[in-house]
Please model this.
Amino acid sequence: MNLMPKTVFLLAALFVVSVDASGETIQVDVNFDGKMDQWHHISETGETIKIEHDKNGDGKIDQIDFYERNKTPVRVHLDRNFDGKMDQIQVYSKDFILERVERDTRYSGKVDLKEFYGPKKQIVRIESDNDLDGLMDRMQIFKEDGKKDRVEYDTDHDGDIDRWEFFGPDETIIRAAFDTNGNGKQDQWQYFKHSTVLEKVEFDTNHDGKVDGREYYDESGKVIRIEQDRNHDGTMDFVKDN
Model:
């Protein structure tokens, strides 16, 4: 979908003007089919407040461009499935650079996907609300080159991140981290080869921020070595090879 609002101005189009106490509304028949399909709301000082569109000619507003005393839209609302309800919001800078897109992908009446863009118009983050509870529970973060850097999850839907996945240059998972006790801190780390082959797991069993246990695996998933720091002094004092 083209994210740029297609605002059509009053060039050789049939229009009528209505005036009220707060300003005026210019109604435009852009495609000359005898039906008004664009409404320009103008303030008392002559500034465009918003422009409403009926793009498919069904008599319902399906796009609204909000200007907020700016020369270009700073926010655009869209009804993508033409059901009479806005289900996408696009937010722009004053220089008309796309900053954020919010979508109701399931047409449930709730925003469940947010996309954030950087100054170079590249996507930097995607957030999703998979259970529609109003809290984003999955966040994808991207590098400047557009490749995935990491994904963060709120697996128990309490509003706090408790799982992290980190990606290498080829966008395969190289490491995953977990908060197993819900204190907001990572206390387990898993290391992978080719995204799916587990090589090592590290543990912080007493939640002091230090690794006090390790398990090493062979390619079949069998534990081949165990290391433990039983007194939590920073030195492994128990080692077992299987």
